[in-house]
Design brief:
Helix content: under 10%
Largest sheet: 8 strands, antiparallel, barrel
Number of strands: 13
Strand content: over 45%
Number of helices: 2
Strand order of the largest sheet: 3-6-7-9-10-11-12-13
Radius of gyration: 20 Å
Order of helices and strands: EEHEEEEEEHEEEEE
Length: 202
C-alpha cells in the first residue's frame, strides 16, 4: 500500500489525478523513532574477502509524515558514534579512535532531510545532509514503507526499511592498510542500513 496512488480519469481528454488513500492520509503527523525496535547499521568489506557488519545502539530521531503529500515528509536522526558495535571490542575501540570516527571529538553522526519523493509502490526516496566528523555531504536513502499498526500499548506505529551506499572517504574516514596479496584491509564503500519503527506523537 503506497502513500498515494495515481489513476487516470477519462473525460473529453485524459486527465491524471491524485487519489489519496484515506488510511494513509490518517497517518499524517509527527513520530518519534523507537530505538528499542529500530536499528541503524552498516556493512563493509574486510580484507577483500568477507563482510563485517555493525550497528549503532544509541540513536534518536523524529519523522514528520504527510500521507496526502509524501514530498512534504521530513526526517531527522542523531546517532551516538561511541555506541558502535561490531561484536568485537578491540575492533569497536579502533572504530572509535582517531583512525576512524574519533568519537571523543565528534560525538554524533546526524542526518537532516531536505527532500522526499515517491518512487512507486511502497518505495520512497529521502534526500538530506549526512554529517560525520563535521563533514556534511548529501545522501539519498531509498526506503520501503512496511505499513502501520497499533501495538498492545495503544501506540500507532509505522515501519520503514532501507539502505544507501556511501564512500567513507567522502566523510574523511580514510584509514587503511595494504594487503600483501594486493588490495586493502577495509573497503571504501560502506552500505548503510535502516530498520525504523516510529511511534506517532499526541
Amino acid at each position: 500500500m503506497g502513500l498515494f496512488n495515481r489513476r487516470t480519469q477519462e473525460n473529453t481528454t485524459a486527465v491524471a489525478t491524485l487519489e489519496v488513500d484515506p488510511a494513509l492520509a490518517a497517518l499524517t503527523g509527527d513520530y518519534a523513532i523507537d530505538p528499542a525496535h529500530s536499528s541503524i547499521g552498516f556493512t563493509v568489506r574486510h580484507a577483500m574477502v568477507t563482510n563485517v557488519r555493525g550497528s549503532f545502539a544509541d540513536h534518536e530521531g523524529t519523522l514528520h509524515l504527510d500521507g496526502s503529500d509524501p514530498s512534504r515528509s521530513t526526517a531527522s536522526i542523531d546517532v551516538k558514534i561511541a555506541s558502535v558495535d561490531t561484536g568485537i571490542a578491540d575492533r569497536d575501540g579502533h572504530l572509535r579512535s582517531g583512525d576512524f570516527f574519533d568519537a571523543e571529538a565528534f560525538r554524533l553522526m546526524s542526518f537532516r532531510s531536505t527532500e522526499a519523493a515517491f518512487l512507486g509502490g511502497d518505495t520512497y526516496r529521502i534526500t538530506g545532509d549526512l554529517t560525520i566528523k563535521d563533514v556534511t555531504r548529501p545522501l539519498s536513502i531509498d526506503l520501503e514503507f512496511n505499513g502501520s499498526a497499533t501495538d498492545p500499548y495503544g501506540n500507532q506505529r509505522v515501519g520503514f526499511e532501507g539502505s544507501a551506499d556511501i564512500l567513507r572517504s567522502d566523510w574523511g574516514l580514510t584509514w587503511n592498510a595494504a594487503l600483501e596479496t594486493g588490495g586493502v584491509v577495509v573497503s571504501d564503500k560502506v552500505k548503510l542500513t535502516f530498520d525504523i519503527s516510529a511511534i506517532k506523537q499526541a
